[in-house]
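Please, structure for the following, as tokens.
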Amino acid sequence: MERIAKITLFISLFLLLSLLSTNLNAFNHEVEYNNNKTEEKSRLRRAIEMIKSKSDQSLPDVRLVKRQVVEIRDLFLKAVEQEGHKNKYVPEVEVILTSNLMFFAGDTNEGFVVAPNWKAAPVPMKQMFDKWMKESGCKYSGEEFFKKNFNWFLVAHELGHFLQKTQKGVEPTNATRWDSEIQANEIAVAFWLKCGKEAELRSFIEQTTKLMNYLKASVPKNFDKEYFNKNYRELAKNPAIYGYVQFLMYKKAWDKRAELNSVVPVNK
């Protein structure tokens, strides 16, 4: 019965989110553009504007989240410049709840960081996060985790994808999805360490490691890097499996922290 309840919860969650994000589902952080694909860029902008028009952007929660994300973005761009690199542009920030939850979409000329806000989340999603926190032994409530993950740590992660798209030589040649995700998490860890947030980051990783261990039972027994690359789109639809993978990558990046000396990685 518990398994059925979980499945029902996940289905309800994604049905609700799909109503909000039908026109954005094709634009997750893996979307790539060529400079001449102006129609695809305008489609993304139109999709975001449409979703914004159907949500109340005047809510205090939306304004607060946007202010927080913009502040992190500005600190990130400043850190990049302090390391001697020029930012190609300032990515825009939008606060909209979509089925992707958090993503960067863009190219070398234009891009967006899209972040979610807790108050817009449907009840099944909130119940899912509350359940995860309680059963994994995390110190966070569902809301606390949501805000710490999506409105704090992952902002730098998505800006890592921004660097991959805009800074020559950042992303390794022939990088797979796994490689890109690992590197984005390493960039996030390097950034937060540079901001003097080691203690806060350590505490966060301790909690997400508990979640990783809790969610491991949901992962296929033959899961590995190749499985992730081959089945990415399907895995991304399953919050338990994709959550496990991201938390695993958080830990890998954290364990490598002694080697992460700069926000902008240099691949030799």
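Residues 3-36 have pLDDT under 50 and may be disordered. Residues 2-259 form one domain.
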